[in-house]
Give the backbone structure.
Amino acid sequence: MQTRMIVNTKDISYNIQILKHHIRVPIIAVVKMNGYGINIENAVDVWYQHDVRFFAVDEPSEVYKVFDCGYKDIYILLMSPVYNKKMLINLIKRNVILTVVSKENAIAVSEAAKEAGRQARVQIQIDTGMGCFGLSHKKTDELMDIYTTDELIFDGIYSHFPYAFEKEYKHTKRQLEDFQKIISWLKEMKINYGFAHIANSCAAIRFKETWLDAVRIGSGLLGRLPCKVELPLTKIGFLEAEVVDIKTIHKGETAGYAQLYTAKKDIKAALLMIGRITGHGVAYQNDYLRFSHMLRGIKDVFKARKNTLSVDFQGKKLKIIGRMGQQYTLFNINNVDIRIGDIVTTDANPLMTDALIERVIVNSY
């Protein structure tokens, strides 16, 4: 072991209890992106222990990973459209709930259902502003065409908030209203649409108005959200890293990429497998389309310069030397009794940590 991600399932269980107590409608557990970095199997297991039976993923390969968990009484929603007939037939036979985003997509699913010899369960995704998958909320004629497509069982309808971490309840409110107009129209047309959901983790925690018939919780499981929330969620995941090597950087010598660091005196340094591969120095790409985002980006730069990365060793903080590396980084160990093979710890987001880093589950059920 050089570096490994530690995931405590008791902490995950705690977060689920907090979320279920706060949210008073059914939860769809989103376990995409390998269970938000903690492994799909781990995420599914803990959700299941807390009586959640509805799961959602983004990719067909993730569907089969959920099935591999061995639970027979669960429902799986695939949140991306599929057109490949062979794949559709396989998914329909497994009773996977498919997402439909257009009339063309509905026809593809219908044809596959006929060949599979059974009706396909589907949910319709409505685009209210995300601009990715989904039928525009303005296209009610096409929506009606979808609902008249043969061989489809309409299990639900949903949309997605791209900006639920906004400071004010403005863009999210407008999207919710557009989605609710669709729901009202369907009721007027006496169309059985199943159940409706739109809230992601940020929206479900912050805005009760968005709950509808169910909510989807993904990143909320990790307690790592792009917005401040009042719930006392625990951050899931931290790294344990071995000291790979120890060396002396002499006065006047440089260290790290771009030679940003020059030693003012002799300094002892520990080399650790901590870097961008472990999620450090990596962030979601900043969006500067709004002036407020640009100001936030500038603020983050000054904050990062002030709060340099450090790791913990027996209660002591070891500060970074130079620039963060892709895989290995140097840390200052002056006046610290530390040896090669000793273990340091540091906070890390499982979602941002490379999948090659071993995940170790502790306090498992």
